[in-house]
Design brief:
CATH architecture of the domain at 4-19 and 32-59 and 68-81 and 161-283 in chain A: Alpha-Beta Barrel
CATH superfamily of the largest domain in chain B: Dihydrodipicolinate Reductase, domain 2
Strand content of chain A: 5-15%
CATH architecture of the largest domain in chain B: 2-Layer Sandwich
Number of strands of chain A: 9
Largest sheet of chain A: 9 strands, parallel
Structural class of chain A: alpha/beta
CATH topology of the largest domain in chain B: Dihydrodipicolinate Reductase, domain 2
Strand order of the largest sheet of chain B: 8-9-10-7-11-12-13-14
Radius of gyration of chain A: 19 Å
Number of domains of chain B: 2
Strand content of chain B: 25-35%
Radius of gyration of chain B: 20 Å
Oligomer: heterodimer
Largest interface: A-B, 46 and 38 residues
Distance between the termini of chain B: 38 Å
Mean pLDDT of chain B: 94
CATH superfamily of the domain at 4-19 and 32-59 and 68-81 and 161-283 in chain A: NADP-dependent oxidoreductase domain
Distance between the termini of chain A: 13 Å
Helix content of chain A: 40-55%
Helix content of chain B: 25-40%
Order of helices and strands of chain A: EHHEHEHHHHEEHHEHEHEHEH
Shape of chain A: globular
Low-confidence stretches of chain A: none
CATH class of the largest domain in chain B: Alpha Beta
Order of helices and strands of chain B: EHEHEHEHEHEHEHHEEEEEEEHH
Mean pLDDT of chain A: 88
Number of helices of chain B: 10
Shape of chain B: globular
Largest sheet of chain B: 8 strands, mixed
Number of strands of chain B: 14
């Protein structure tokens, strides 16, 4: 993993601290062109990894990127699924019909897999089909890792369905020969589940880690202690706590922590992107 | 440790399932839903007993509490049956879609000494809790008026079908968003309130309202304006906003931030004259398990606490939330809508 990974929250108007700032950001990235320009800048200053939610909005951007020579060493890190896409369909059509809608390839083969999956109550074949569906969009791009979104990871963790996380990891790593990763809001719970209960070797986890302990569950101290055990590979996100922490202080905190080698961050303005990138490269 | 079952495993039911399953003091023993394939998947993959008929489940299992997330129109019957069986209830809002039914449940809950907690998650939002604390500490002096608003993009084109377009099924902006917005006003400013005037407006829906306007007057003289709109395309996800005016200044808050402008310093709270900002990042956000916001985790912790600490059960949550159902009924009546 690269030390610095660029994120996509700003493109969707996600700001965990302020609703008004979020709305302003959403406004600034209305067009796919404005997003492409922002990624060109990121690439230009040497950030070579982009982590994003598999939202339809990115499809034309990645198509263009695949043909753009400037991006030939640029790596994509999809986080799937884009939950709203499926959640909305689930509400409208019911769980099983909704899954049918998103399956790629032969409709007959897919439909029989969906039916079998429903009949045998085994969600694994469906999960594999959904991963394939998302990966089809990225067949011409460099993919560095595939992450499962926190809403799914944490849902399975809460329900007691962690075995599916291990299935996800095995499928991604065997079929695509790409590292699997997990985003979570419950780092300690997840690290314990993946390593202690499921026996995964150094799983890759991306979670909120920041100086003020914002959304570090169950507590900042518990997260720091678990990181020190070195049982997971870690990417820190929300290091700036949506702007509540100054970049210098944010980076100093991360640099002092054991076993955090990569940082995911997003920002709108070129100045902030450049500044945070330089700080990170200088400290990690 | 209390034995809990879930009735209804849709989007909300599934998230309550995960949260309750990760909440100290709650032990999920069974689930009930109408979808057999879903039940099979839950039993097989999560090892939890499943039922197709909730009455059978209530009889067969030794339950202390249930978490109910069924369609609005079924709320009354399901809650009634659970309370009759002496089981504590957590139910998604609205309690019922008919005020008389809600009153009947209130009476039944008292007879059975059962708790009824309604999913008014704004009460557990860190920022709104902070606003309540600041108002109670007299930061704004005497509160004179407020504007409580909820906006979202649920119905954005012509709608002539589905439960959302039917009052009898609990659809319409007033039934869907109304409880959250009105309950927030009651949570912050008290339940001794009367409806002065109101207006229901349809924008896209053929049978129900898409926008709600209501004027409240609280007994202590505080005037409130309620604006609710579920047809706002500019909102990424449903949002609540509150503006409060008092003799010492004013305050604006949404789920993530508070902005305060004071013309009178509050020395004991440490606020000078002028502008102040409080963000959710300034508050303690720790929860044992996080799925979709601290508020959802804290709400379930409260349910667990009430069940595990018997002393709190008598102070039934239902008393403080039933006013919302009364006001909704009055708004409907004032606008000539007959329901139930």
């Amino acid at each position: 993993m690269d030390k610095v990974i660029f994120g996509d929250n700003q493109f969707f108007g996600v700001n965990h601290k302020s609703e008004s700032k979020a709305a302003a950001q959403l406004n600034a990235f209305q067009s796919t062109d404005s997003i492409y320009k922002s990624l060109e800048y990121v690439n230009e200053i040497g950030i070579k990894s982009f982590m994003f939610t598999t939202h339809d909005r990115f499809d034309p951007i990645f198509e263009r990127m695949a043909k753009d020579n400037n991006f030939k060493d640029f790596k994509l890190i999809p986080c799937m699924p884009y939950a709203h896409k499926y959640a909305n369909a689930m509400v409208d059509m019911g769980i099983f019909k909704a899954m049918g809608k998103f399956i790629p390839g032969s409709k007959i083969v897919a439909a029989s897999k969906v039916t079998m999956s429903a009949f045998t109550a085994n969600p694994v074949p469906l999960m594999k089909l959904l991963i394939d569906s998302e990966m089809k969009q990225l067949k011409n791009n460099n993919v560095d890792a595939i992450f499962l979104q926190n809403i799914v990871v944490d849902l399975l963790l809460g329900l007691g369905g962690e075995f599916l996380l291990a299935e996800f990891s095995q499928y991604v790593e065997h079929k695509y020969n790409i590292r699997a990763g997990f985003i979570t809001m419950n780092y300690v719970k997840l690290a314990n589940a993946l390593v202690d209960h499921l026996g995964l070797d150094k799983p890759l986890i991306c979670s909120g880690i920041n100086k003020i302990g914002f959304r570090m569950n169950p507590s900042q101290q518990a997260v720091e202690e678990c990181l020190a055990l070195n049982k997971t590979d870690n990417i820190a996100m929300s290091i700036l706590a949506s702007g509540a922490i100054k970049p210098e202080e944010a980076v100093n905190y991360i640099a002092k922590l054991p076993n955090v080698k990569s940082v995911l961050f997003g920002a709108s303005s070129p100045k902030n992107i450049k500044h945070t990138n330089e700080l990170l490269l200088g400290s990690l | 440790m209390k034995n809990i079952a879930l009735i209804g495993i849709g989007k909300m039911g599934l998230s309550h399932f995960a949260i309750a399953n990760s909440t100290k003091g709650l032990n999920i023993v069974s689930v009930c839903d109408t979808s057999k394939s879903l039940l099979r998947a839950i039993s097989k993959n999560l090892g939890i007993k499943s039922y197709h008929d909730y009455n059978k489940m209530l009889n067969a299992e030794n339950l202390d509490g249930v978490i109910i997330s069924v369609p609005n129109s079924m709320h009354f019957n399901v809650v009634k049956d659970c309370l009759a069986a002496g089981i504590h209830v957590f139910i998604e809002k609205p309690l019922t879609i008919n005020y008389h039914d809600s009153v009947a449940l209130q009476t039944l809950a008292k007879t059975k000494n059962c708790l009824v907690q309604v999913g008014f998650v704004n009460r557990f939002n860190l920022i709104f809790s902070k606003v309540k604390e600041l108002l109670e500490s007299n930061l704004l002096g005497d509160v004179q008026s407020y504007h409580c608003e909820m906006r979202g993009g649920v119905i954005l084109e012509k709608n002539t079908k589905g439960w959302r377009n039917s009052y009898a099924a609990g659809g319409g902006c007033l039934y869907d968003f109304g409880p959250h917005c009105i309950d927030l006003a009651i949570f912050l400013f008290g339940d001794d309130v009367e409806l002065k005037s109101s207006n229901l407006e349809s924008v896209f829906s053929s049978q129900v309202d898409d926008r709600v306007h209501a004027d409240f007057l609280h007994k202590n003289g505080v005037e409130g304006i309620i604006s609710i709109d579920w047809s706002d395309p500019s909102v990424r996800k449903a949002t609540n906003l509150i503006r409060v005016k008092g003799t010492f200044g004013e305050l604006f808050a949404n789920k993530q931030e508070i902005k305060i402008n004071l013309n009178h310093a509050s020395n004991n709270l440490g606020f000078n004259v002028g502008e102040h900002e409080i963000y959710v990042t300034d508050l303690n956000t720790n929860v044992d398990y996080y799925l979709r916001g601290e508020d959802f985790s804290l709400q379930m912790q409260e349910f667990s606490k009430s069940l595990n600490d018997n002393s709190t059960i008598n102070k039934s949550f239902i008393d403080s939330v039933i006013t919302t159902d009364r006001l909704i009924a009055e708004i409907l009546a004032q606008n000539g809508v007959e329901n139930g």
